Amino acid sequence: MIIKCPHCQKLNRLPLDRVHENPICGACKLSLLLGPIEADQVSLKEILNQNKLPVIIDFWAPWCGPCKMFAPTFQVSAIKNGEKILHVKVDTEANPSIGHQYMIRSIPTLAIFKNGSELERISGALSSTQLAQFVSRFK
Ligand SMILES: [Zn+2]
Hints:
Layout: E1 2-4, E2 11-13, E3 37-39, H1 41-50, E4 55-60, H2 65-81, E5 86-91, H3 96-101, E6 109-114, E7 117-123, H4 128-136
Parallel strand pairs: 3-5, 4-5
Antiparallel strand pairs: 1-2, 4-6, 6-7
Helix pairs in contact: 2-4
Bound molecules: zinc ion.
């Protein structure tokens, strides 16, 4: 799938079958995983089914205040942990079928997936300490 480099914003192909080999940006040579990856309904399916690392998904929407408040917290976690657990953001307003498919009842909701299966989810805007504790159990 194609993602924006979190450092220089250049578009790069992210090899989902080789994400554990720490893919780097072709332009700036920094890690493609050290920042949130934006996914839609098509690329989310690819991420969940083709990649071997655990995935944490932030289900959010542009109209949701707590989601916006939580975004920097999620970004910091991605910069710290993105090479061990993929940090993916899904806009549930732009991708309404995802909300149905994953039964998202409130946002923000965080869900952890490994090898295509959901392991756990938690709702609400976590503090950075709460998020660090949640993530550390899965990486
Ligand atoms: Zn780059």
